Amino acid sequence: NAGVTQTPKFRILKIGQSMTLQCTQDMNHNYMYWYRQDPGMGLKLIYYSVGAGITDKGEVPNGYNVSRSTTEDFPLRLELAAPSQTSVYFCASSAVGSNSGANVLTFGAGSRLTVL
Amino acid sequence: GQNIDQPTEMTATEGAIVQINCTYQTSGFNGLFWYQQHAGEAPTFLSYNVLDGLEEKGRFSSFLSRSKGYSYLLLKELQMKDSASYLCALMDSNYQLIWGAGTKLIIKP
Q1: What is the rounded distance in angstroms from the CA atom of residue A56 to the CA atom of residue A98?
Q2: Rounded to an integer, what distance in angstroms lies between the CA atom of residue A87 and that of residue B26?
Q3: What is the 3 state secondary structure string of chain A?
Q4: Which listed residue, of A41, B6, B52, B56, carries a Cα 20 to 30 Å from A79's Cα?
Q5: Taking CB atoms and an 8 Å limit, are B45 and A90 in contact across chains?
Q6: CB–CB of B59/B77 below 8 Å?
Q7: Distance CA B60, CA B46 (A)
């Protein structure tokens, strides 16, 4: 199984540009998440989804949008990129919901985004 | 509020034992996770504790004391491949994960 696949792995954007980070999982997980990871800081939740057609904001949603049209896909869109969005982005999925201690996350390999 | 702290960096010798501590403050608690993250790679799950005590899994063990707001990850018989960052994550009363900044472990021969 491929697990969680993210694309692209690296991208450089100019300020004001838009782009979509793709995330696909083949484990039939209902729960999917987008995190960003900045140096010296813990992972921050951007958006999450508990199933197809349902999305919710996390801790740092401003400047991002998501959609969940299928169980497999959970793309993250950056509108009007800003230098503050320079970060490493991780998509993750889990088989059970966050209301369970067994909520083990499977992460994608990450997407390193630089906004200049 | 919620707060989670772990040392920024630690150094240990191949074959030795190292303990990585994680302290937290929270109004609600639903478990504590440890993940391993090699440089440039994704985090991978190591352990989960929700009750006090020690959970052993091969060379890795994780301990939790809820009354003290304290957990540690114990790595035995260190190997060079254990060089990585170790992330502590708290699951709060709303079942949201609060992540520590991670401890970078450097293993020397």
Answers
A1: 13
A2: 27
A3: CCCEEEECCEEEECCCCCEEEEEEECCCCCEEEEEEECCCCCCEEEEEEEECCEEEECCCCCCEEECCCCCCECCEEECCCCHHHCEEEEEEEECCCCCCCCCCCEECCCEEEEEC
A4: A41
A5: no
A6: yes
A7: 8
Taking CA atoms, A61 is separated from A47, B94, B107, in Å, by 6, 18, 37
pLDDT for residue A99: 55
pLDDT for the residue numbered A1: 65
Question: Do residue B30 and residue A109 have CB atoms under 8 angstroms apart?
Answer: no
* A40, A41, A107 member nearest B43 (Cβ): A107
pLDDT band at B39 (very low <50, low <70, confident <90, very high): very high
Chain B interface mutation, best of A5, A43, A100, highest count of B Cβ atoms under 10 Å: A43
